C-alpha cells in the first residue's frame, strides 16, 4: 500500500482581477448642444496620480458619477482660496443664455461623416435652389388660380356668419338683398368685402366642412349597414371632388362661350358649387330615419333650395351690375353692355345650371 500513499492536492490559485490602466475617450460627436456636458470614462494614469488639492475642479465627469451630478453647482476656487458655487456644467437658461451669446453655437462638423466642407456647402446650396425652384413652380402654375390672399379672404368667417349662411342656403326664399358689398382699400382700389362682413359673399369654410361631413356620414351609413370598408372614404371623397370639378368646368365653359367678361374668381365658383353639400347632408340624415317618403321630400326641397340659391347668387356673375362692374374694374372707362339676345342666352344658361343641380345631388346621395 506504500505505492498508493495519499498526497495532499496542490493549493488553489484564484485569478487576480486586473483593470485596464486607461480607458480611451469616446470619439466626439459632430455637434453638441451648448451647455451639454458629456460623460467620460475614468481618468487616465496621469490624472489618477495627481494629488487632491483644495480648489481642484475636475474637467470631466467620471463614468461612475451620478447622472444628476452635473446639474449640481460645482465648487470653484476663489482668488482668496474659498469655495464659491459656480454654474459650470449647468446649461444656461433665460437671460443667462442671452448674456453668454446663444448664437455662438459651433457649425456642424461634416468631417465626422466623411464629408468635407466644400461638398457640404455645395449640397446645401443645391437644396436651397431646389426648394426655391419648387416654390416658383407652384406660384407660377397654381398661384394665379389659388392665390394665398384669396384663400385667406374666403376663410375669413365668424360663428354668426356660418349660422346665417346655413340659414340662407336652406331657406333662400326669405333673404333680401342678394347684392354683394364693395369696400375701398387704402390704395383707392375696390374689392369685395370678406364673408365675415357680408352674408352674400361666398366662402370656402362651409363647402370644405360640408365635404368632410359628407365623407364621414357616408362611412357611418355603411357602418350601420354592416358593410363598412376603408376604401369607402376614398370613394366618397373622389365622388365629391369629381362633382365639384364638373360643376366648375360647366360654369367656366358657359362663361367662355357666352363671352361673360369680368366673371367671378375661380375660388368663388368653387365655393358656390360646394354649397350643394349642405342639402346633400340633410338628405342623408333623413335617410337614417328609414322613411322613404321623408327622404324623397327632403331631397326635393334641398334641390329646390339649392337651385334658387344659385339662381340668385350666380346672377351677379352671369348678369353683372354695370355700376358694380365699373367700381371693381381696374379700368373704369371700360363698360360691358349686354343686348337683349345675350341676356336671354345668359338667363337660359343660368336656369340650366340650376336644373343640373338635381343630377349632381342625385349622384352624391347614392351611397
TrEMBL record:
GO BP annotations listed: endoplasmic reticulum to Golgi vesicle-mediated transport; protein transport
Keyword rRNA-binding assigned: no
Regions that span the bilayer: 204-224, 236-257, 269-288, 294-311, 347-365
Polar residues bias (residue ranges): 68-90
Biased composition, class Low complexity, residue ranges: 40-55, 91-104
Keywords: Endoplasmic reticulum, Golgi apparatus, Membrane, Protein transport, Transmembrane, Transmembrane helix, Transport
Family under the similarity heading: Belongs to the YIF1 family.
Name of protein: Protein YIF1
Amino acid at each position: 500500500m506504500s505505492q498508493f500513499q495519499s498526497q495532499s492536492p496542490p493549493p488553489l490559485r484564484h485569478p487576480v482581477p486586473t483593470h485596464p490602466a486607461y480607458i480611451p475617450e469616446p470619439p466626439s460627436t459632430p455637434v453638441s448642444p451648448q451647455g451639454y456636458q458629456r460623460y467620460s470614462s475614468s481618468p487616465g494614469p496621469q490624472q489618477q496620480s495627481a494629488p487632491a488639492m483644495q480648489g481642484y475642479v475636475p474637467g470631466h465627469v467620471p463614468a461612475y458619477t451620478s447622472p444628476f451630478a452635473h446639474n449640481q453647482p460645482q465648487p470653484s476656487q476663489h482668488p482668496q482660496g474659498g469655495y464659491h458655487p459656480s454654474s459650470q456644467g449647468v446649461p444656461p437658461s433665460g437671460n443667462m443664455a442671452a448674456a453668454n451669446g446663444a448664437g455662438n453655437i459651433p457649425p456642424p462638423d461634416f468631417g465626422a461623416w466623411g464629408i468635407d466642407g466644400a461638398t457640404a456647402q455645395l449640397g446645401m446650396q443645391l437644396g436651397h435652389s431646389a426648394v426655391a425652384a419648387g416654390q416658383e413652380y407652384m406660384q407660377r402654375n397654381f398661384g394665379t388660380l389659388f392665390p394665398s390672399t384669396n384663400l385667406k379672404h374666403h376663410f375669413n368667417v365668424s360663428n354668426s356668419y356660418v349660422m346665417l349662411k346655413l340659414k340662407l342656403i336652406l331657406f333662400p326664399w326669405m333673404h333680401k338683398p342678394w347684392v354683394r358689398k364693395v369696400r375701398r382699400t387704402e390704395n383707392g382700389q375696390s374689392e369685395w368685402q370678406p364673408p365675415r362682413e357680408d352674408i352674400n359673399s361666398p366662402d370656402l369654410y362651409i363647402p370644405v366642412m360640408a365635404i368632410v361631413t359628407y365623407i364621414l356620414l357616408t362611412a357611418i351609413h355603411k357602418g350601420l349597414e354592416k358593410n363598412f370598408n376603408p376604401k369607402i372614404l376614398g370613394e366618397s371623397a373622389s365622388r365629391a371632388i369629381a362633382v365639384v370639378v364638373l360643376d366648375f368646368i360647366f360654369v367656366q365653359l358657359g362663361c367662355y362661350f357666352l363671352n361673360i367678361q369680368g366673371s367671378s374668381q375661380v375660388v368663388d365658383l368653387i365655393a358656390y358649387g360646394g354649397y350643394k353639400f349642405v342639402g346633400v347632408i340633410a338628405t342623408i340624415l333623413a335617410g337614417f330615419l328609414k322613411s322613404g317618403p321623408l327622404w324623397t321630400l327632403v331631397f326635393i326641397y334641398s334641390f329646390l333650395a339649392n337651385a334658387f340659391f344659385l339662381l340668385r347668387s350666380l346672377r351677379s356673375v352671369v348678369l353683372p351690375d354695370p355700376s358694380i362692374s365699373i367700381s371693381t374694374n381696374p379700368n373704369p372707362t371700360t363698360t360691358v353692355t349686354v343686348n337683349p339676345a345675350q341676356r336671354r342666352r345668359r338667363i337660359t344658361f343660368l336656369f340650366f345650371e340650376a336644373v343640373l343641380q338635381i343630377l349632381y345631388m342625385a349622384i352624391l346621395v347614392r351611397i
